[in-house]
Amino acid sequence: MIKINLLPFRAARKKENIRRQISVFVLSVVCLALLMGFVFLNLSRTVVALEADMSSKKKELATYAKTTKKIQVLKKKIAEVRAKLNVIKELESKKTGPVLLLDELSIAVPKEKLWLTALNERKGILTLKGTAMDNDTVALFMTNLENAKHIVSVDLKTAKLNNLKKYKLNVVDFVLTCKTYAHKEKAKPKTKKKR
Does domain 109-180 bear CATH number 1.20.120? Predict the structure, then answer.
């Protein structure tokens, strides 16, 4: 019988397999390193481009910041001018308002039938005291006042018959309160509802 020694062949095959596995491992490590290098270079280019874009955006934002400051200054000036204009309008209305109110009062008084003895105005509430020939004249005066432009509402507080014995005449003494254009209602505080 012939004996063939296969051990050297197996050893050579084993060495060849080990060499092949090592070369595949080294080749895959090299490929992986190349791939990682390519990805790293690509990402670093992207980062550099983004940083350049960010610096240009910051410069652009700095120019807008100057414009924004100018706009804020202009808004403050506009608000100040509007406030001044509102004060001027209010002063003008208060300047001409009383004159127009007195003119309307003189027009509303029925001639030779009603005389005003006192006139008082505080915080937009006008109090009128006077004497009239009769109740109808007081009612006519109240109607005329309600039709006046600068008077909002009219309320009769008192009306009292007064006998003038010297002249043998009955007259009506009255007190009226009127809300004028300058009257401002107080805001009512909100109450919380209980649950």
Answer: no
The more confident residue out of 5 and 60 is 60
For residue 176, which of 76, 112, 105, 107 has the smallest C-alpha distance?
Answer: 105
Q: How far apart are CA 121 and CA 57, in angstroms?
A: 64
Residue 178 backbone dihedrals phi, psi, to 5 degrees = -130, 140
Q: Cα separation of 185 and 85, whole Å? A: 24
pTM confidence score: 0.49
**179 beta partners:** 125, 153
Domain boundaries, the chain: 109-180
Both tokens of 70, joined, read: 């100018």
Structure tokens at 151: 């008077």
Which pLDDT score, from 0 to 100, does residue 61 have? 86
DSSP assignment of the chain:
------HHHHHHHHHHHHHHHHHHHHHHHHHHHHHHHHHHHHHHHHHHHHHHHHHHHHHHHHHHHHHHHHHHHHHHHHHHHHHHHHHHHHHHHHHHHHHHHHHHHHHHSPTTTEEEEEEEEETTEEEEEEEESSHHHHHHHHHHHHTSTTEEEEEEEEEEEEEETTTTEEEEEEEEEEEETT--PPPPPPPPPP-
